[in-house]
Amino acid sequence: MSMSEPLLTQIVKQQLPAGASVVTILKPVEHPAIYAADLTGDGMPEIAAVYKLDEELTLLILKFVQGQWTKMSVTKGLGYNATLLTAAPVTSTARNNLIVGWQLGSIWSKLAVYEWTEAGLTDVAPDDLYFSHAEIIDMPGQHGRDGKVEIALWTHDTGEAYRVDIIRWQNGKWVPATDVYMYYFPKVVQYYEQLTQHYPDYTFYWYYLADAQYRAGLLPAALISVQKALNFNEPYPSREALLELEKQIKQGMGGSHVRETTWLFPISVRTIQGTRWGYMDAQGRIRLEPVLDDARDFQPNGLAVVVKDGKAGVINLNGQYVVQPVYDSINSFEEERAIVIDTQGFKMIDEQGHVLTKKAYPFIANMKDGRALFYDTSGDQAGGDVSRYGYLDAAGHEVIRAQFSSAYDFSNGKAVVQVKDNVFALIDRNGNRLATYPFAYVGPLGDGLLAFQKETPGKYGYIDEQGQIRIEPKFTTALPFRAGHAIVNTAEDYKSIYGVINRQGAFVIQPAYNDIRDLGEQRFALGQAIDPEQPFIGSLYAIADVNGRRLTEFIYRDVGDYKGGLASASDGRQTVLLDLSGRPAPGYPRVEGSGTLEVVAPDLIKANVDQRLSYVNRSGQIIWRQNKIVPLQPPYRVREEKYKPNPDYLVYYPQVEGLTDQVVQLALNLKLRNLSQVKPIPADQKLDYSYTGDFDITFYQQQLLQLQLTGYNYPFGAAHGMPTMIYAIINLSSGQLYELKDLFKPNSDYVKVLSQIVGDQIKNDPQYSYVFPDTYEGIRPDQPFFVTADALHLYFNPYEIAPYAAGFPTFTIPFAQIRDIIDTEGSFWKAFHM
């Protein structure tokens, strides 16, 4: 049961005594002191309200019984107003406590934490628990969140200074929540950092900054701040108190209280706003809250690329933006430089976020060996555009102008470039030509030998850097040399016959495999076709040494590179770390599912398995994994289910819980399974395609829940797969799945009206210039769509009216533009406009 504020107010007013009025809570925004939450644990919300009558406050609790709201509890309040009214699980995870702030003075309130018992409401907070401001959050401790909230109490001292204490209910009493200090106090540190910047001569702000830094584990910074406070003639709160704090800080710097400066690790959380990203430490404690659209790994320079509100930026290990989120994308840093993309094109930035390039380019590659490959376009004699490649230096200057038809990255001070058709060259870092190669194709550098092709089409061989032929052309594929070996293909048809040669061109691994991967550290993965008649379906891999000696059977569906003697591998059922023998490494876990494992800390393993991120320790204990349940307004929630009948078929699908009618709920969830492509798939048969499906919550307002169901079908051997996208738009009260027609008045010609609007957008909006000419003929009555708070969005599938690269062309129509045909009395509209 979800209720809007006007409806709650109307219900409460009907139960008030004559002359009584609901009080107003002033902060953070003015709102009536009314709150709906399940206080008794029966799955149905009660309504709590604070009203004033004859200058006395009363806490009223209403319960919905036999079709009507009745008074469940009436409790005398304190003070003259309410500053806080909310509900959260404080004493138990089974149900909510009612939390009230009774205002006793202009900056003082008494905290009350009510628990529902058979005798009625009982305040479990002590009589002397006062505060000026409170935050109520389930804060992550040493083992993550526990489902109960902690309460941060900000108590006014002097000026704008507050003493901050964090408490929790534990074992029947209130205790300090010291294990969450490192999570919460960085926020307090930021508050006092701003105050000390504005008021550097106020001693009490330096004291509170030092105290917050100490509790946050930022001990070196805390020591500086407390010593700053001690330098004042009249230190606050006293010289003795500051010296004691200084002593504690110094003791902490020699112990374990120091906040770890090791890496943070990205985590994902499902929320009602969709999947959000944050960061945890190596113990699984959340250090940066999951509020981001995306979060990548921290790089060796202590910086990480993140996405916020659709724009990419860069943060440091404290969560501070080094590069504001203003770019469309940001590559990883290479050699202290990163490539960013905005509406103008590609640019280069340094680790402080300064843009180094003088202009934007159509393309810039990552920095390699002090040079970044770029290309620029210019007009040719035929009136078209031609691309030419050159190189930028670390300052963003065009150290080698754009002049080559194609080019590769620099390595060891040299790079291969194409001067023109049938002419390649080797150049140095200044663009000087070291050698010229009169061939149709020359590949990138590799151990002093370069793959080449005399003419097109033709076989591949290898030349040295002076252009002398060292291995005659006889291969249909020739990859670069690495550590004295190169992978080559000898097949004459669409099938593959891969082997490995040495620098003399002799086979060290005979050509007999559907695929070969160089894993590094003198190990190869030899791929045997699952179906020799359909080699494009894929391979099973065995691990071999550089002499071709097979160390394992053909059992792995995927194998990663070796790093420090370990490589991730999966057989489709489990993912493991292999040692150099090709066997699962002792002392490391086996994780169910297909994916990759990576050791990211001494006792922390990052698992990207079955398209879900988790972290485990070496014994296999889960340190973090994404939540499978998303709570909505009680009693509703969305539960994630997994369907993987075959290694090549994986679907995550939603199930909605909390509907009053279980028959309706069962029918709704069956539809969601079907829409998500949960269907019979053979378990042991190799499919000729792979399918992945997932979902996200894209909109939730009042009684309307919108789920985006996505899928990707990839036929093995195809250039690309085909994505699908369906929206399930659900009324949580009735379980109805809405169609487009349900939004509009009966007999309204909504198809004509919407078709005209979309047609005008295609014609007049330049962003839709990619639409195929003359393909749009209007929308269908069942046109795919989704909604947001203020607009209807119509979309088309790939290839329907635009190229594949355009994705799902989407057209936004504000509700205000079509208000006259919307059925504002219909259940669809009312579900999110109550």
Topology:
Elements: H1 5-13, E1 21-22, E2 24-25, E3 31-32, E4 34-37, E5 46-53, E6 56-65, E7 68-76, E8 81-88, E9 97-103, E10 109-117, E11 120-123, E12 130-131, E13 133-137, E14 150-158, E15 161-170, E16 173-176, H2 181-198, H3 203-216, H4 219-230, H5 239-253, E17 265-271, E18 274-280, E19 286-292, E20 294-295, E21 303-308, E22 311-316, E23 321-327, E24 329-330, E25 337-342, E26 345-350, E27 363-364, E28 372-379, E29 385-392, E30 398-404, E31 406-407, E32 414-420, E33 423-428, E34 433-437, E35 441-442, E36 449-453, E37 460-464, E38 469-475, E39 477-478, E40 485-489, E41 498-502, E42 507-513, E43 515-520, E44 523-529, E45 539-545, E46 558-559, E47 567-570, E48 574-578, E49 591-592, E50 595-601, E51 604-609, E52 612-616, E53 622-625, E54 629-631, E55 637-646, E56 649-657, H6 662-675, E57 689-701, E58 704-715, E59 722-731, H7 750-764, E60 785-787, E61 791-795, E62 810-814, H8 827-831
Helix pairs in contact: 2-3, 3-4, 4-5
In words, what does this structure look like?
This protein has 834 residues and is mainly β. Helices cover 12% and strands 43% of the residues. The chain is built from 8 helices and 62 strands. The chain has a 6-stranded mixed β-sheet with strand order 54-55-56-57-58-59. Strands 1, 4, 5, 6 and 7 form a 5-stranded antiparallel β-sheet that branches. Strands 8, 9, 10, 11 and 12 form a 5-stranded antiparallel β-sheet that branches. A hairpin with a 3-residue loop joins strand 47 (567-570) and strand 48. Residues 255-261 have low confidence and may be disordered.
